[in-house]
Amino acid sequence: MRECRGRGRRNLVSTGDTRRMTDEGTELFVQTVDGIADAQFAEPSALPGWTRAHLIAHVADNADALGNLVHWAATGVETPMYASAAQREADIERGAGQPPSELRARVKLSADRLAQAFDALTPEAWAREVRTSKGLPVPASATVWMRAREVLIHSVDLAVGVGFTDLPRDFLVQLVGDITRQRSRGDGPALDLVADDGAGRWQVSGANGSGDQATRVTGSLPAIAAYLAGRPGPALTSEAPPQLPPWL
To answer: Region entry Disordered: which residue ranges (predicted)?
Structure first.
């Protein structure tokens, strides 16, 4: 994995593991984008229907969208992540048409703006409730994890050699816990997930908490994280794991 360094000073409230993951993920994503040749921007990413340019534009837009939530927390003035789902998609399409040099610059500048916004929040502002793009109420402090998840998973989605085995182990543990909680509220199968490298064990209750008989799924921590996130990754050691619906 490439060496990752944090960006800027850190507010006392936003220090700790999650902010470190965000900083490392940002550095990894920026370095990965910098290593992509101009001609490769128009090639497919790992996400269906999106080129690498689409994905890079989305990550830049996401920094500004989360910045809207930070502004909301700082001022108390309701500021949604996106004006609408249609506007979000239009912005991604427009961004995907920008020259690679502009996209590289946008990713860096938007990440720096978000880091500065994080650093400026007060303890009271971090606790203020905002809403995600899906309308879920969360404390502003949740935006740090949302950004960590965005930059680290999408570093893999760029499909240029970064894999789940390259992501920080503590991030993967937190990611698996996050996804299992979300999947337990969904309509997917019940799962008993066991990391055979000693990382832990997790359960998905399945079908909106129905408590159906769980399927045992085993593998390394990166393999389980990739499976839960619906991404290619290291092979699981269990046979024929069930297909999973989208989780976000």
So the answer is: 1-20
pTM of the model: 0.91
Q: Quick: pLDDT tens for 105-149.
A: 999 999 999 999 999 999 999 999 999 999 999 999 999 999 999
Range of the domain at 104: 17-162
Q: What is the pairing mode between strands 191-195 and 215-219? A: parallel
- Report if residue 247 sits inside a domain: no
Longest C-alpha distance within the chain, in Å? Answer: 51
Find the helix or strand (DSSP H, E) in which 215 lies.
strand 215-219
Domain boundary residue, one of 162, 188, 215: 162
Calpha distance 181→91 (Å, rounded): 31
**CA Rg value for the chain:** 18
Structure tokens at 182: 């979300």
